[in-house]
């Protein structure tokens, strides 16, 4: 379980580009998004998170290339998914409880985007650079939250 201090460390570490590269896991991506959306109203997550991740990757030695680093479609997918999740829980729980419950939900599956995109489409250079619509199923965040 992640404490509020752990969650803050991940979110602020991403912003400051001090989070160790080994700590930048799928769970940490989700936690950072939850933290930024819930705790940092000064940040327009939809607009700013791509640049935040891009700069973090560069600072931690990960190339933002056609095959590695920042991925626009996946980032946009998780921003929308986590935003929908947070709207559902609407401030009713402690941050650590929200993170715990999200990470235990189907929405936290690392391979979840493959329910909506074929692997070839999702891993394409185009999807890495710009939003690409799903080709397998329509996005339905409500059903993931029920």
Give an account of the 3D structure.
With 146 residues, the chain is an all-alpha fold. It has 8 helices and no strands. It has helices spanning 4-16, 26-39, 45-59, 72-89, 95-103, 119-122, 125-129, 141-145. Helix 1 packs across helix 2 (26-39) and helix 2 packs across helix 4. The longest helix is centred in the middle third of the chain and has 18 residues, at 72-89. The two termini are 22 Å apart. The mean pLDDT is 95.
Query: In terms of structural class, how would the helical and strand content be classed?
Result: mainly alpha
Label the overall shape: globular
**Number of helices in the DSSP assignment:** 8
Distance between the termini: 22 Å
Which spans have pLDDT < 50 for at least 5 consecutive residues? none
**Beta-strand percentage range:** under 5%
**H/E topology pattern:** HHHHHHHH
**How much is the average pLDDT?**
95
| Residues in helices, as a percent range | 55-70%
**Main sheet record:** none
The radius of gyration over CA amounts to 15 Å
The total count of strands amounts to 0
Tags for this entry?
mainly alpha
List the helices and strands and how they pair.
Blueprint: H1 4-16, H2 26-39, H3 45-59, H4 72-89, H5 95-103, H6 119-122, H7 125-129, H8 141-145
Helix pairs in contact: 1-2, 2-4, 2-5, 3-4
